[in-house]
Amino acid sequence: MEDFNPFDNLLCILLGISFTVWFTLLLVFIIVPAIFGVSFGIRQLYMKTLLKIFEWATHRIERGAKDNNHLLYKPYSNGDGSNRDLDHASEFEMSDIFYFCRQGVESIMDDEVTKRFSAEELESWNLLTRSNYNFQHISLRLTVLWGLGVVIRYGFLLPLRVTLAFTGVGLLVVLTSIIGFLPNGRMKNFLSEQVHLMCYRICVRALTAIITYHDSENKPKNGGICVANHTSPIDVIILASDGCYAMVGQIHGGLMGVIQKSMVKACPHIWFERSEVKDRHLVAKRLSDHVEDKTKLPILIFPEGTCINNTSVMMFKKGSFEIGSTVYPVAIKYDPRFGDAFWNSSQFGMVNYLLRMMSSWAIVCSVWYLPPMTREEGEDAVQFANRVKAAIARQGGLVDLLWDGGLKRGKVKDTFKEEQQKLYSKMLVGTQEDRSRS
Amino acid sequence: MGSTNSTLSKIPNVEELMQETGFTPAHIVRLYDRFEALDKEKTGHLRPQDFGAINRLAMNPIGDRIIGAFFSPGQETVDFHSFVRILAHFRPADKKRPKDPSMPEPVNSRTSKLKFAFQLYDQDKDGKISRAELLQVLRSMLEMQVTEEQLESIADRTIQEADLDKDDAISFEEFRKSLEKVNIDHKMSIRFLR
């Protein structure tokens, strides 16, 4: 009996110390900067280190593949790489159809935007088996590195991130409820903004999201609508950690519902009951009422819809562009080298998806704030929407977004088909003219 | 990967399919995942609309023709086996295979690839690409970018060069001959590996 006591004590002391150290580190390096919006630059350093490791891993795979004569899966890029096929075509040939045919079949097999990498970039393996199609046992060192990666990600990063996530969400709920008791006025707005920003920043660190903001002078202002391309549920957190927005969405039950209800106490967000979502006029009216009140925050809308409820998507699409206020487009682009941020909603549920996000290395993305746009004379809502979409796509380098649905399919088809046809004809018509001159 | 085996066991006659198409189990699983993703209503078949939902395909000037290639005449749905068989045309050719005349032509041989492409031109399946059919394809690929006269002159020149028996149409043999210098395997193959 006596033997156990010293060990017990020792164990308790050790545990106590490590917990204290842990929490202090957490507080100092993550939570405090989040509150004040400053950064130690730790994440940037982390990112650079990871990139070096990935480069090494990629070289090993390529070397290994060459030695073993395996075919490597090179993710293709359309627009950059495959146009080279047509560069040799100076005149129409029967074989030119192969170019379109192959493109078409490639998109049947796989058309997710994630699989696009630039033609110049080597396929880089980020030590996550989920994103590697070539994983075979190439070398011991590589496997060990991968194993180490797994241990770090699941043993250290994941618990850390989950803790942060709970902290962030918990603080959000508690603080916004408290602020709800204050009388309406400037103080309340100020505090609510600070609280929202702080909690979102904690969430950003919970995902280890390394975000670069460009052109912040174009940030959305009150009375406007902020429109962004939607690629993952995390988009909200990324945008909301840099500015204050009024969210729009359907009220859910459970944890989401609690968060939504408490958020709305601090500042006016627009939440719809399930029944109201179907009423387009009601939706449009509430949105325009909000927008007309210049004291209220700009509305954040993803015309492609949130990943939560697809029926709501249809409503918002036309609605947001019909309202007639200034639209502030925002382009978000994820760097695929660090982790696959795209949510295949038919494959994973939300929780599964979040776990995947939290167990990848980091989420690196860029946000561009584009200059505001308004609907012009003689332009209908759909054309305006297309124009905004084109501006976002151009900025983010995202040529074919999964952006469809409510917009008239015919129009979208023609516009993009035309681009394809233009590219192809440039080569042919040029030579035709030369021929006629000679 | 344990999941490979469980997915494979869901597919009937999968051994035969692999034999016929030359796909490895990993390929089949990947294609099966894709098939399921496209088959949103889980009917086990794909209809033209399911293909139409692929945005990049909708943008493709000959997207409709490619979709048509999956459906045999009179059929309105495509099951997984037919889906895989068509996609097998795009496997890179097996360079090491010995030429065995007694075995049926492999589905990813040069000839089969050419036949697939020929089919895209020859919509009425009469075995010849008529001038009108050629014009139709040119129109889809070029539409607003060139005038009708330019389209016609391109069509004329192409037929002139390829049509050897002067019947104003291009038969499969003439098609094959006109493409003898083209690296079909490179143009009509999609390299993929799981």
From TrEMBL, chain A:
Phospholipid/glycerol acyltransferase domain ranges (all copies): 224-335
Keyword presence, Cell inner membrane: no
GO-annotated cellular components: endoplasmic reticulum; membrane
One family name in Pfam for this protein: Acyltransferase
Keywords carried by this UniProt record: Acyltransferase, Lipid biosynthesis, Lipid metabolism, Membrane, Phospholipid biosynthesis, Phospholipid metabolism, Transferase, Transmembrane, Transmembrane helix
GO BP term (any one): triglyceride biosynthetic process
Transmembrane regions listed in the UniProt entry: 20-42, 138-156, 162-182
Protein name as annotated: Phospholipid/glycerol acyltransferase domain-containing protein
From TrEMBL, chain B:
Record's keyword annotation contains Cytoplasm: yes
Superkingdom of origin organism: Eukaryota
GO cellular component: cytoplasm; nucleus; plasma membrane
Main location: membrane
One function term, GO molecular function aspect: calcium ion binding
Residues forming coiled coils: none
Membrane-traversing stretches: none
UniProt cross-references to SUPFAM superfamilies, sorted A to Z: EF-hand
Any matching Pfam family: EF-hand_7
Residues annotated as domain EF-hand: 109-144, 150-185
Location(s) in or outside the cell: Cell membrane; Cytoplasm; Nucleus
UniProt entry tagged with the keyword Iron: no
Keywords: Calcium, Cell membrane, Cytoplasm, Lipoprotein, Membrane, Metal-binding, Myristate, Nucleus, Phosphoprotein, Protein transport, Repeat, Transport
One of the GO BP terms on file: protein transport
UniProt similarity note: Belongs to the calcineurin regulatory subunit family. CHP subfamily.
The protein, known as: EF-hand domain-containing protein
Organism this protein belongs to: Oncorhynchus tshawytscha (Chinook salmon)
Gene: CHP2
